[in-house]
Amino acid sequence: MKIFTSKQIAEIDAFTIAHEPIASIDLMERAAEQLFSWIKKRYSEEQSFQIFVGPGNNGGDGLALARLLSKTKFKVEVYLVKVSKNLSVDCQVNLDRLRSQNLVSISEISTSHDFPVIFDDSVDVDALLGSGLSRPLDGLLKDLVLYLNTSKAELVAIDIPSGLFGEDNSLNNLHHCVRADYTLSFQFPKLSFLFPENVDCVGNWQVLPIGLHSRIIDEMESPYQLVDENDIKKRLKKRGRFSHKGIYGHGLLISGSYGKMGAAILASKAALRSGIGLLSTHIPRLGYDIMQTAVPESMVSIDRSDIIFTEYPDLESFEAIGIGPGIDTKQNSFRALEELFEECDKPLVLDADALNIMGQNPQLKDNLPKGCVLTPHVKEFERLVGSCSDSFDRNMKQRDFSKKQSVVMVLKGAFSAITDQNGRCYFNSTGNPGMATAGSGDVLTGIILSLLSQGYPSLDAALIGVYVHGLAGDMAADELGQEALIAGDLVEYLPKAWKKLRE
Ligand SMILES: NC(=O)C1=CN([C@@H]2O[C@H](COP(=O)(O)OP(=O)(O)OC[C@H]3O[C@@H](n4cnc5c(N)ncnc54)[C@H](OP(=O)(O)O)[C@@H]3O)[C@@H](O)[C@H]2O)[C@@H](O)CC1
Ligand SMILES: Nc1ncnc2c1ncn2[C@@H]1O[C@H](COP(=O)(O)OP(=O)(O)O)[C@@H](O)[C@H]1O
Ligand SMILES: [K+]
User: Locate the YjeF C-terminal domain: which residues (predicted)?
Assistant: First the structure.
């Protein structure tokens, strides 16, 4: 699903009105019907609603919703905030319709003395401002938002929490934005929903389709996309009836050090559980028995060092290389990594300590093999690129980095962001906080190495790998719960996750 800016959404809206064609007031009605049907499913019939309405079309949605609710047993009160003399045309039409129906009490809020009592068991609907927000909230609106945020009532935001910008909130004050329990966003999510600092404002968000015109959605360019299961299925290659293990590639995983052999085991198992033909795991000498016992399916390449990575085998026979989980950051490992960068012309995935070594030796950045995949978490990313003021800034820097160095980068976390050489950015939609546990990232490296070895292009390997990793995490969390989930469970659930993608 593409993600558009507020400005683009307004264009899509206008195109739909002109080309469906549909009157804008009817498009608003369609949006209100979607809100209404979401509410009907969620709340019992006697529920009371306090709807707070602003001057624009977001307010218009709130008024149309109030009319639909009032025709049922739901109890509704409307509060119209007087922040400008004129309402938008469709907001005014809906106000007139609601007034003429005479079923709902409509109060005006002109000063903070007009704020109503909010009952804990009511549901507040935020229809103050939507994607037409042009500046951070101040004055009466800010005071009302602060007031709403102190209440214990459940808060449902229409389209976007009032006060929050759809994209860049770096100059905004997030304390002055509505803190919703639910945000019901029309047709697309907003970019800002995917950034961690906004989670308290956005709450649980959902997309409500309102039938915007598919042609303009297909044609309009956006660098941002939220990846779903269909996007992933389309990228999967078939496994042929007559295929043999040579077809699925031989991967080299460089991983582990004294005390961190678990990383090599997890990544190796994950690679083997993701379709690779052959795997060799390069480890320090002291890890030999552990590795052969724990992962008999993997061949072992032994470093001359007992405890760390200092060299790698001839690369000729490998289709792809993965390096980093648990290798430590010693000087000799840095030298070996530097050499690998110079020599390697194979697909490569870099994680964990390989990235930390780069953070300590910034000159290495410019030697990164083109097209390789990097999988930092936020801290590793900032060691590499420098500190960032917020997630929006971090996302810009990530896109720039990918473009400038011509690499694919996975910034891991909730909604992991995957950027490519063209500066495009794909957000992953699977995964859960249960995956915030030691070794999860090692599993991902193994999966991506496996896909690279099978000949998937870097971007596909990253997108598919991140998706299936999160899916395995979701399936594991469903059965085991988030607290109990450990990285080994991700490996255990990979078979089910792959099977689901092949359905
Ligand atoms: N796109 C779709 O698919 C559909 C969209 N729909 C709905 O339309 C919504 C967008 O509507 P919208 O453009 O009228 O914007 P909205 O935010 O309601 O109000 C803008 C007004 O507020 C004002 N204003 C701005 N900032 C302010 C501030 N800080 N403090 C005070 N005032 C401020 C601004 O004034 P100005 O900036 O000109 O000074 C202007 O008067 C969208 O979110 C969705 O709910 C659906 O109905 C149907 C399909
Ligand atoms: N809240 C979350 N939602 C979704 N995925 C998460 C969440 N927290 C962590 N993850 C995923 O778990 C993995 C953690 O990787 P990483 O931080 O490298 O762990 P480690 O270094 O312990 O292996 C990443 O793929 C990340 O996207
Ligand atoms: K809103």
Answer: 228-501
Which amino acid type is present at position 407?
V
Annotated binding-site residues read 57-61, 126, 130-136, 159, 162, 263, 326, 377, 412-416, 441-442
Starting from the CA of residue 471, give the closest ligand. Answer: 2
The upper half-sphere exposure of residue 3, i.e. CA atoms within 13 Å in the direction of its Cβ, equals: 22
Task: Kindly give the distance from the C-alpha atom of residue 268 to the centroid of ligand 2, in angstroms, as a whole number.
Answer: 18
Q: In what order do the strands lie in the sheet with 417-419?
A: 2-3, 224-226, 425-427, 417-419, 408-411, 373-374, 348-350, 320-323, 250-254, 278-283, 299-302
Nearest ligand, measured from the Cα of 57: 1
Q: Which residues fall inside 5 Å of ion ligand 3, going by CB?
A: 58, 126, 157-158, 162
Please name the residue that has the structure tokens 């389309």: 234
The phi-psi region of residue 343 (left if phi > 0; otherwise alpha if psi is between -120 and 50; otherwise beta) is: alpha
Q: What is the 3-state secondary structure (H, E, C) of 131-171?
A: CCCCCCCCHHHHHHHHHHHHCCCEEEEECCCCCCCCCCCCC
Annotated binding-site residues for (6S)-NADPHX read 57-61, 130-136, 159, 263, 326, 377, 442
Protein residue with least CA distance to atom 18, ligand 2 = 441
Structure tokens at 126: 């935020």
Closest-CA residue to 131 (of 155, 95, 156, 167) = 167
User: What pLDDT, on the 0 to 100 scale, is given for residue 98?
Assistant: 98
- Spatial separation of the C-alpha atoms in residues 295 and 134, rounded to whole Å: 57
Q: What is the pTM of this model?
A: 0.96
Kindly list the structural domains of the chain, giving each domain's residue range(s) and its CATH number in brackets, ordered by start.
2-222 (3.40.50.10260), 229-502 (3.40.1190.20)
Mean pLDDT (whole number) for 393-401: 98
**Cβ–Cβ contacts within 10 Å for residue 341, how many?**
19
Element (H, E) at 489: helix 487-502
DSSP 373: E
Pocket residue to mutate for ligand 2, from 255, 265, 412, most atoms within 8 A of Cβ: 412
Pocket of ligand 1 (CB under 6 A): 9, 13, 27-28, 31, 54-61, 83-84, 88, 129-135, 137, 141, 158-159, 186-187, 210, 212
What is the C-alpha to C-alpha distance for residues 297 and 292, in angstroms, rounded to an integer?
8
The enclosing H or E element of 32 equals helix 24-42
Write the pLDDT tens digit of every residue in 134-155.
Answer: 999 999 999 999 999 999 999 9
Residue 298 C-alpha to ligand 3 middle, in angstroms? 54
